[in-house]
Design brief:
The protein has three helices and five strands. Strands 1-2-3-4-5 form a five-stranded mixed β-sheet. It is globular.
Length: 138
């Protein structure tokens, strides 16, 4: 069986973008103020930057096609968390380092061809201190 990698990559991108749109809708329902969707800088990328009250949230969205033994969070590795953290530091510098609390969240989405099966919002999924205490998982 031949795999069309271009189609597979496009499908993955579309699924990821759909997951981010679902996450933004969820955050708006929770009264978060969305600042940026898909923030990029040389240090990395952040899916969503939003504000929850006085807290600035850097949010990673992980979407999977079906429910199985692997959770979407299993795809968030230490290396990616460090890139998100470094990118967030660049963003804070860009907005003149406001003295506000920050948080790193994860939103997991299970989506089949027709609808959302499950959504979980993990607030404070990781922090700078947890990055120091973890070892690289690949």
């Amino acid at each position: 069986m031949l795999i069309n990698y271009r189609k597979a990559k496009n499908y993955k991108k579309k699924l990821g973008y759909l997951g981010e749109k679902i996450a933004i809708s969820l955050l708006k329902k929770k009264n978060y103020r969305i600042h940026i969707h898909n923030y990029n800088n040389p240090k990395g990328e952040i899916d969503i930057i939003a504000q929850d009250g006085l807290t600035l949230c850097f949010i990673e969205v992980k979407t999977r096609r079906k429910k199985d033994k692997w959770k979407p969070a299993d795809n968030l590795k230490l290396k990616q968390m460090k890139r998100i953290f470094n990118s967030s530091m660049s963003y804070l510098k860009q907005i003149n380092n406001p003295n506000i609390p920050v948080r790193y969240d994860l939103i997991e989405i299970i989506y089949n061809k027709f609808d959302v099966q499950d959504v979980k919002h993990h607030t404070n999924f990781f922090s700078q201190s947890t990055l120091k205490n973890k070892t690289y998982q690949g």
